[in-house]
Structures are given as structure tokens and as C-alpha cells.
């Protein structure tokens, strides 16, 4: 699913929720995936140009979600910002919600790959 502007965010969230439910994720996992995708897409829309794409699939008991854009590589392993910080929580939240988070430089652009074991 492609996205290009802030008005696309509700449609991306609905897509992520539908796919996660269809792939057998638990209700908590669905919510975690939707929040993580929302954070990553929001970062794309705020900090890059050209929008991006989201793809979600399952294999071997795992759900994988790629959020792809043309922004710089993401630094993972972030500490949660202090409560008085105005920004900087997005990737830290994503890393706490997902079973696996990887940043990959690919031919398509920068990929943030999220992983969940189905039903765990």
C-alpha cells in the first residue's frame, strides 16, 4: 500500500489492521502493529519527501511488515526520551512494541522491517 500525504494515514492504519487480523495476529499484536506502522509512516511524512509503501505478509509463523521510504537509514536501539522531551519517541516506541525491528538499506529505499511471532 502506497502513501504520499497525511490524509493517507487513516487508510494505512486500516490496511495494517485488516492485514494483521487476516494473518491471525492476536488483538494485542494487531494494535502494536497498527501503532508501529502509524509511527513510522508519520515519520516518513514529516521528515522525507515522496511518501512510501507498507507491505505485510506471513510465513513460517511470523508476520513481517516493511515500511519503505527514501529517507536516511534509521538508528535503532534508541533510549526512550525523557518525559519533558518534545520529540524523538517514535522509533523508541516501535522498538518496544515489536518482537523484531531491523533497518535495511535496499534498492527500493530504506526499509524498516517489523516482525511478530503469530499468536504469541
TrEMBL record:
Membrane-crossing residue ranges in chain numbering: none
Pfam families, per database record: HATPase_c_2 (PF13581)
Entries under SUPFAM superfamilies matching the protein: ATPase domain of HSP90 chaperone/DNA topoisomerase II/histidine kinase
Entries under Gene3D superfamilies matching the protein: Histidine kinase-like ATPase, C-terminal domain (3.30.565.10)
Alphabetical keyword list: Kinase, Serine/threonine-protein kinase, Transferase
Domain of life according to the entry: Bacteria
GO molecular function (one): protein serine/threonine kinase activity
Domain Histidine kinase/HSP90-like ATPase: residue ranges: 5-114
Protein's name in the database: Histidine kinase-like protein
Amino acid at each position: 500500500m502506497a502513501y504520499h500525504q497525511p490524509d493517507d494515514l487513516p487508510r494505512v492504519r486500516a490496511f495494517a489492521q485488516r492485514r494483521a487480523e487476516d494473518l491471525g495476529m492476536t488483538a494485542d499484536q494487531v494494535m502494536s502493529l497498527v501503532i508501529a506502522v502509524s509511527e513510522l509512516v508519520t515519520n516518513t511524512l514529516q521528515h522525507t519527501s515522496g511518501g512510501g509503501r507498507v507491505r505485510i505478509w506471513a510465513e513460517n509463523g511470523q508476520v513481517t511488515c516493511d515500511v519503505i521510504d527514501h529517507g536516511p537509514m534509521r538508528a535503532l536501539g534508541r533510549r526512550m526520551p525523557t518525559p519533558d522531551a518534545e520529540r524523538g519517541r517514535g522509533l523508541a516506541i516501535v522498538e518496544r512494541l515489536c518482537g523484531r525491528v531491523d533497518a535495511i538499506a535496499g534498492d527500493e529505499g530504506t526499509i524498516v522491517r517489523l516482525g511478530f511471532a503469530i499468536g504469541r
